[in-house]
Amino acid sequence: MKRLAVASALALSFIACSSFPRPRLLGPTDAERREYDGAIATARRDATQGRARLASFLERHPDSTLADDAVVPLARLEVKAGKSEQAEKRLRDVLRAHPKEDRADAVRLELAEILTARGEREAAWKLAQRIQPSLLSDDERRDAYRLLADLARDRGDTAAQLEWLARLRTAARDDSDVASVDREIDTLVARLPADGLVRAAERLGRRVPAAELWLRAGELSLRAGDKAGASRALAEAERLPLQPDEAQQLVRLQSLLQSGRGGPVDRSSPPPPPLSQVEGAQNANPAASVSGSVGVVVPLSGPLGKVAEDVLRGVLLAAGSFGGDPNAPGLRVLVRDSGGRPEQAANAVRELGQRGDVSAVVGPLTREEVEAAGAAAQEVGLPLVTLTRHEGVARDRAEVVRFGLTRRMEAEVLADHAVLGLGLGRVAILYPKDEYGREFEALLWQAIEARGGRVVSVSGYEPTATDFAAPIRRLLGPQAASAPTATEALEDPAAPTAPGGPPPLLDFDAIFIPDAHDKVAPIALQLASSQVTGVKLLGPSGWHHPDLLRIAGPRVEGAFFSSGFDPSHPSPLVQDFVARYRAAYGVEPTPFAAQGFDAANLVGLQILQGAHSPADVRNGLVATERYPGVSGVTSIGADGDARKRPFLLEVRDGRMTSLE
Q1: Neighbours of 524 (CB within 10 A)
Q2: Residues 331-368: tens digit of each pLDDT
Q3: Residues 513, 598: Cα–Cα separation, whole Å
């Protein structure tokens, strides 16, 4: 019986073993290695022959431990040759046969990228999450982190997106790549509420930028009056390695927490109405009828010299320096050149504050100058009315008033008009991959969705790009034909993408392009040449330039954009300013001239209403409600941040026309 049992066991063992394939060798044979190396060498010289030799290797040696090595370069070559379905099948076959080989994760990465390109993002996400980045090459690891970050973004999982961007940051090739990822992270952090920041920071652990997230969460909690949340966030930040600026921010926020300052700010009130709907919009400027002194600190000798000159001209016009009796009362203007240097700007503010006869300072322009000048303004107790666009510069600086138009304001008025005004519920975004473009892309996305619309397609291009064919193809999706080059579009703007072919199927109603006019014009031409018709183009104030019409012509007909100033606006206040500015300087006023004019007028208005000291002027400024200026209706809150209503213009019959 015992011999029979043993024999039966051996028979069962043989049958069981015969039902599985024979075990593979521990490594490739010498012949396999030579054939594989030869195929790789051929592929480096000739893609077509390399594809054939790699495919032959896989067919001859499907069980080789080099199969996963061979399928990755083969799949890449096949995707480039337009054979992505064939590449996908090969990758899946090898992954099933070799799920634990050393290049299996590279196979998963290639497969996930194919799925992503085809729009199967959920399947790509599930597959990509199984990738072990430590088993990839350096370049592949960066590709995997970028893919996972983008897929997380598409899913709306900002915490996961930040985690993968943080990993991408640690794997970056050089400082420029780190800076690029940091800008992307900063844009995301600026969009997150306090609870979202906490979730993302908890997920990051001690990895950069966890400290930045905890500090931002603490700041938002302080502003909302949530002292418990702020205390926890700042305690978490204190446990992490901090950069010098982060350490300074931590000390500042802890001081605010201990002092009980930094409470909630009321942002629930609606934005100011259009200028045409405000009473008093026909009043003459008050600054010409008062006596006093206002300082102007702008970079006249720096790279922003032209902008600074425009601001100064606006201030001088408001102060009554032209077109009137030179002996009549008016604001005295004391001009100081900051030279574009923060310390020089700070010294100028200190000197003006120590005079004792200056009520306020208009300027500077850049964020760096404002930071330095704002600290000096605090020292001498002098209101600083800065024209910068950057949010937050007035935070924790009681003397600083930010008067400039921000990108958020522009994004919100554009979204209002697109979604609520025109019913354009599906929007695509084509943006430059720089700080300006990325911030606008994020802000408009947020504003569109807040109004019930959807961003259905996004594509970026390098800031230095002159040809936008590839970004346009990505925007249109895989069904798009080849877009014409910029040269082809300029030579024959009416030529379609594929002569006689059908136009692309568009799943959006509008395209937002956050760039300057000199980039928008060739983009508009290439869009038209790609048969992208019947959609609205919209953009920010960078579009507001006559050369847009000169270059793009009818291709931007019907487009609309925001602006800090509209010289075509029908308001008598605006038309009077335009006429006076032309008479004084012989040129057309710019948005910066309009802002300088309004800032000086607001200071003059406080003096006219009885402000006797710089403190009185500052208190009057932060109580401003619905001030009808030529640069838009403005309200200023106790936090020193102005809320303005940007203008909207439309290209109509070949002209830039006010939408009010």
Answers
A1: 27
A2: 899 999 999 999 999 999 999 999 999 999 999 999 89
A3: 29
Q: Is the peptide bond before 209 cis (omega within 30 degrees of 0)?
A: yes
How distant is the alpha carbon of residue 267 from its chain centre? 22
Once rounded to an integer, what is the mean pLDDT over residues 251-262? 70
Cα angle for residues 624, 625, 630 (degrees, 5° grid): 85
604 and 290 in contact (C-beta within 8 Å)?
yes
Which position has the token pair 């600190």? 297
| Close Cβ partners of 138 (under 8 Å, ≥ 6 residues apart) | 171
Alpha carbons 630 and 608: distance in angstroms, whole number: 19
- According to the model, what pLDDT value does residue 27 have? 73
pLDDT at 223 over 80: no
pLDDT band at 236 (very low <50, low <70, confident <90, very high): very high
Q: In this structure, which long-range contacts are made by residues 120-127, counting pairs with CB atoms below 8 Å and at least 24 apart in sequence?
A: 121/151, 121/154, 121/155, 122/155, 124/151, 125/151, 125/152, 125/155
Q: What is the homologous superfamily of the domain 31-142 according to CATH?
A: Tetratricopeptide repeat domain (1.25.40.10)
| Domain 408-563 CATH class label | alpha beta
Nearest to 359 by CA among 284, 309, 287: 287
Whether residue 194 is predicted with pLDDT greater than 80 in this model: the reply is: yes
What pTM did the predictor assign?
0.58
**CATH superfamily name and code, 289-397+571-645:** Response regulator (3.40.50.2300)
